[in-house]
């Protein structure tokens, strides 16, 4: 019996509505409906345990794979590469997806049980894109304000002038009268619905984001930053420091959009071996 069928039969037998079960296990109604209708499996074992408690069954019964011959719950490493691309940026996913074919990504996939399939409809993807754009705008505003407070002059750069570059930022600033004349950014806002279903672990996501700049031409006058709103992802990106061969100035920035402030910045790589953080951390 498929996972979704198990949930539906157990829920109806208990006389529960979908929104009631969703509330009890701490997920959105939309997420729970995807469990039943799309056979999507939760990412966390704790969610399985909550489901078993609410529906009055054994956790192992829900964890058990579907009957032989079905594809539900299975995903190959090739599928993971495609999924990883769409999760980082559905628009340019094909560019970054290949970075998932790493030893750590495959190892993480093998360790993850049960495996699940991510199913998204257009409305969900549009909502995801909307959240990313909102974070991008808010984060840029916070960074520009922080620069102004320190007397650093800047203006938004025109991405049309980057034609011919091997890598592209989401946005960039042109800095005036500083060691760094150009500052590139990529952004990622954590999304609970995505993280509940996506088969991408934090180390994999951190590696993918870092790789966005890996093909950029070396330029001592340019700085690149990965801007995030999640402490765990920030810490994971900090782990890349000291174990990469990127020749360029790169940092990770943690933004608190709720309080409209820049929490902290960590230098991950520098063009010059003896470069200090203060010189490259404009903020």
Q: Quickly count the domains.
A: 2
Counted by DSSP, the helix tally is 13
The best one-word shape is elongated
Rounded to the nearest angstrom, the distance between the terminal CA atoms is: 56 Å
Protein structure class: alpha/beta
Fraction in beta strands:
5-15%
Q: State the order of secondary-structure elements, H for helix, E for strand.
A: HHHHHHHHHEEEHHEHEEH
Biggest β-sheet: strands ordered side by side in the sheet? 1-2-3-4-5-6
Overall pLDDT level: 76
Query: Which consecutive residue ranges, at least 5 long each, have pLDDT under 50?
Result: 67-118
Q: Helix fraction?
A: 40-55%
Q: How many E-type strands?
A: 6
Largest sheet report: 6 strands, mixed
Write down the Rg.
21 Å
């Amino acid at each position: 019996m498929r996972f979704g069928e198990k949930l539906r039969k157990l829920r109806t037998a208990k006389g529960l509505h979908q929104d009631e079960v969703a509330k009890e296990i701490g997920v959105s109604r939309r997420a729970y409906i995807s469990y039943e209708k799309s056979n999507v499996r939760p990412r966390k074992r704790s969610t399985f345990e909550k489901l078993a408690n609410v529906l009055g069954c054994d956790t192992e019964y829900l964890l058990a794979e579907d009957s032989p011959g079905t594809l539900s719950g299975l995903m190959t490493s090739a599928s993971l590469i495609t999924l990883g691309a769409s999760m980082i940026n559905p628009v340019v996913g094909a560019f970054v997806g290949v970075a998932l074919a790493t030893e750590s990504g495959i190892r993480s996939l093998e360790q993850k049980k049960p495996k699940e399939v991510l199913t998204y409809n257009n409305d969900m993807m549009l909502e995801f894109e909307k959240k990313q754009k909102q974070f991008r705008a808010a984060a840029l505003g916070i960074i520009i304000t922080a620069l102004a407070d320190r007397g650093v002059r800047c203006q938004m750069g025109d991405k049309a002038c980057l034609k011919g570059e091997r890598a592209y930022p989401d946005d960039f600033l042109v800095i005036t009268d500083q060691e760094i004349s150009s500052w590139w950014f990529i952004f990622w806002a954590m999304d609970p619905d995505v993280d509940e279903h996506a088969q991408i672990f934090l180390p994999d996501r951190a590696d993918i984001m870092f790789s966005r700049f890996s093909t950029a031409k070396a330029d001592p006058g340019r700085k690149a930053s990965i801007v995030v709103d999640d402490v765990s992802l920030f810490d994971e990106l900090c782990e890349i420091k000291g174990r990469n061969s990127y020749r360029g100035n790169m940092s990770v920035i943690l933004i608190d959009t709720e309080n409209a402030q820049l929490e902290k910045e960590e230098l991950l790589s520098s063009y010059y071996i003896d470069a200090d953080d203060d010189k490259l951390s404009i903020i």
